[in-house]
Write a structure and sequence with these properties.
The structure is a single chain. The chain has 642 residues and is of the alpha/beta class. It has four domains: 55 residues, no CATH class; 327 residues, Vaccinia Virus protein VP39 (Rossmann fold); 105 residues, no CATH class; 115 residues, no CATH class. The protein is built from 18 helices and 33 strands. Helix 3 packs parallel to helix 6.
Length: 642
């Protein structure tokens, strides 16, 4: 019967175990007695293996431990915070309050290879406090203690003064595991952009070379942040950097930036445009083998050629000439757009016959662009501009050194498509969220964003503290709200012609420990406490204060669903359930009311693809559980317990 009932995992994936499993599948001969035979692996790699006595790379104290911190699974989850959210039922944006190391682990299940762009502005190593827990041995426990969610021992701040012997190592130990986890989230053609100053720029470059691969380094951009400079020693510092890395440089195609003052070569009744071939130019990385949904025929009206030789195009077979993406080096090319997008944007496509007689499909590009340069400067990009923007939103100074919106907006414009997902796990004042919403309002895009911010306490005597903000996360959430309203008001006329409303909302979540009781006791625990813990485990698998929405959020995350699933309460045969999507998933999470077999039969008759039932809801009735499993099997429904 166990094969007919799926059990929700209690933790995030174990990355060490999964890596070993991948090795076993690729090279089964390196697995001996359930373990990886490292010597056998070296033997198979032969000339490809480096001489271990002379290795090239960046090494520092604590690196191995930092790697383990990324690999270790967590029981943590995210609790929905309805009160601090905006447009919960419709938004696709997310704000998460919590330690980003744990949050990145939680995001691995659903968001693996789904995020097109990651931008982060991590704490610069200035010798001041790291506002991140300094002990990752226990992961979530340290965070909960730091935020006083466990006890009143106080917050842990790790001061990283430059007089310490491991000044650079401490910063690298903070960054390394986060970058390892972040890479997993990028799409195949995704990019990461990281702001940094000269203190750690060289070390960050080496770490990124290791994590993302030296061949996937795209560029380093210098940004002028203070035109008059600020004197440090013999020179006045006026710049910072951001590094750009691709998940796979071969698969990545970054966008050019708009420029003013140039003219278009072509025009139609919708305005001027230039042409860009719709075929993906990188057939080696994108072809019919790995992107079969992007290879389909176009139909061209060869009799409709205008003075420039441009012909009408359709995805539907209403014209006679059929055009396929050409074959390159034996590989069938694919289009950059999917079939539905091409159908919806048909007026933005045109065909033209080349000098070789081959008809090609083109996109009408209605903006003049050029490749972005590696030095950025302008009054909209200096640091003071970011401060002025936040001060104007809040009416007072609530955040130090925020990045300017235009700076992040340019990065997002270069690194994303109109429907991309953007992640910032060092959110700060949430400039990235502001930039995404503003860019969407300007170019009609529907990009989504995920913000992650530690609840760093603000000084009660500061302007932010006087305004009632307790943490930087509180400031960031309010920034998302205020900037969304400002963007909506500023672009009201353009927003009226959008095919879908501009999303200025966000679902708010907070990092917490699991809602389900877990075995976790030290070997020296008092016997009376151990006995009570065993009784608690027997009596309930879910925490007493676990609300249905909290339980469902954790279950969905651990089963691989997103943070923006549509969830609604439904009643079936007297049982209160939660429906996910259009009822594709039904969940019964009330451990206090045992359902009858007739009630469960009625739930099964709703024909969901998946049914989730809290283990405690059966109240020890194995026969009821078995009968439900048989009912689900007869209907082809996946039964999951938690």
């Amino acid at each position: 019967m166990s094969e007919e009932i799926h059990e929700t995992p209690s933790t995030t994936p174990n990355f060490q175990t999964e890596l070993a499993a991948q090795l076993a599948e690729l090279m089964p001969e390196v697995i001996a007695d359930g373990k990886v035979d490292v010597e056998k692996l070296k033997e198979l790699l032969d000339g490809d293996a480096a001489d271990s006595s002379e290795r090239f790379g960046l090494f520092w104290p604590g690196k191995r431990r930092a790697l383990r911190a990324a690999q270790e699974p967590t029981t943590a989850t995210l609790r929905p915070d309805f009160e601090n959210s905006k447009d919960w039922d419709t938004t696709k944006n997310v704000f998460i309050e919590g330690d980003n190391l744990e949050v990145l682990k939680i995001l691995q299940k659903h968001y693996h290879a789904k995020i097109k762009m990651i931008y982060i502005d991590p704490p610069y190593n200035t010798g001041k406090d790291f506002v991140y827990p300094d002990n990752y041995k226990e992961g979530l426990d340290t965070y909960l203690e730091w935020t006083r969610q466990v006890n009143e021992e106080g917050k842990k701040l790790s001061t990283n003064a430059d007089t310490e012997g491991r000044y650079h190592s401490n910063w690298l130990n903070m960054m390394y595991p986060r970058l390892k986890l972040a890479r997993n989230l990028l799409t195949d053609d995704g990019v990461v952009m990281i702001s940094i100053d000269e203190t750690e720029q060289a070390h960050l470059k080496k770490v990124c070379d290791e994590v993302f691969g030296e061949s996937n380094f795209v560029t380093q951009v210098t940004t002028i942040v203070k035109t008059e400079g600020r004197r440090y020693g013999f020179f006045a510092k006026s710049h910072e950097y951001f590094l750009v890395y691709a998940k796979s440089e071969a698969a990545t195609q970054l966008n050019e930036i708009s420029i003013e003052g140039k003219t278009f070569k072509y025009s139609d009744h919708h305005g001027g445009f230039n042409l860009r071939e719709l075929r993906n130019q990188n057939a080696k990385a994108f072809n019919s083998t790995n992107r079969p949904n992007l290879r389909y025929p176009f139909y061209v009206d060869a009799n409709s050629a205008d003075k420039d030789g441009l012909m009408a195009v359709s995805v539907d077979s209403k014209y006679s000439d059929i055009v396929e993406a050409i074959v390159v080096d034996g590989l069938e090319s694919v289009w950059r757009w999917g079939r539905e997008k091409a159908r919806a944007e048909e007026r933005e496509l045109a065909a033209r016959r080349g000098s070789d007689g081959v008809i090609r499909i083109f996109q009408k590009v209605r903006r003049i662009t050029e490749a972005p340069k590696t030095v950025w400067f302008g009054k909209e990009l200096i640091s003071n501009k970011g401060t002025q923007e936040v001060d104007a939103l809040f009416g007072r100074k609530v955040f130090d050194f925020p990045k300017p919106v235009e700076l992040i907006k340019q990065m997002v414009a270069i690194g994303t498509d109109p429907d991309s997902l953007v992640l910032d796990f060092f959110s700060g004042s949430a400039t990235t969220a502001h930039a995404v919403m503003q860019l969407n309002s300007e170019d009609g895009g529907s990009r989504k964003h995920i913000q992650v911010q530690l609840p760093e306490p603000v000084d009660a005597t500061s302007e932010a503290g006087k305004a009632g903000f307790k943490t930087i996360a509180d400031v960031a959430r309010q920034r998302v709200h205020l900037s969304g309203e400002k963007v909506k008001a500023a672009f009201e006329s353009q927003l009226g012609v959008r095919s879908e409303p501009l999303d200025i909302g966000y679902r708010s979540y907070s990092l917490v420990d699991t809602n389900f009781t877990k075995w976790k006791q030290s070997s020296d625990v008092d016997l009376n406490k151990l006995e009570q813990h065993l009784l608690d485990l027997r009596e309930s698998s879910s925490a007493d204060d676990g609300l249905p929405d909290d339980l469902l959020s954790e279950i969905l995350l651990k089963q691989g669903y997103s943070l923006t699933e549509q969830i609604a309460p439904v009643e079936v045969a007297g049982l209160n359930l939660r429906a996910v999507g259009d009822g594709i998933v039904l969940a019964y999470l009330n451990e206090h009311v045992k359902p009858t077999l007739d009630q469960l039969r009625a739930v099964v008759d709703e024909d969901p693809a998946r049914l989730i039932v809290l283990e405690d809801a059966f109240q020890g009735d194995d026969q009821l559980k078995t009968n439900l499993a048989q009912l689900c099997k007869s209907k082809g429904i996946e039964l999951w317990t938690a």
